[in-house]
Amino acid sequence: MTETNHTGVFRLAYVPGVTPGKWVRMWGERRPRVPLELVAATTDEAPALIRAGAVDAAVVRLPIDRTGLHVIPLYTETTVAVVPKDHVLTAAEEATVADLADEVVLQSQDDALAWPGERPGRAAAYTPATTAEAIELVAAGVGLLVVPQSLARLHHRRDLTYRPLADAPESGVGLTWPDAENSELMEEFIGIVRGRTVNSSRTPRRDGTQAPGTPAPAKKSIAPRPAARRRTRRR
Is the pLDDT of residue 209 over 60? Predict the structure, then answer.
């Protein structure tokens, strides 16, 4: 593998709602001499940052344009409806898309969900630029908002709550990086997000030797053959 990062820093872009703190801590334990720099970005911005070489990898919401990129899915999130605390939807533990048929449902310009057909509810007269702005409109009684659960938690307000939508499309989160030969640092980070142990995520050095901490392969021992017995002739 070719080491392509010459800055001494591994740069990771991440989208709102994603919490990469665990991966950052594990990186610090495994690569203490290489800082991991976090770069906040939208899912639309992250692929462009990778293609421009501004970051080494990104954690994004799927789907994205995969041209020139590797992508591996990491997990999926529940989709929820954000509503005022006194809204009728709060009477149940979860709701369905049909329950939103008569509701005004806001859609922000940075909407993270991909609907296979028509969006639920009635469209709002105004399209907020960001999820944060849409949350403010929900609090003002303009309408409801359908988002991945992590975004509802990120923009939590005391006067709002949310309910899972049982039949809504889920939001996928994935790791993406350049479609090229992986650097050693990239292989290390892939191992971290996939939950590999320290030894299994280590990669061979370019000189063919193992990295420190990687157990050497066991050598096969060849047992000596037993000595042949001499045959004695009877006289």
Answer: no
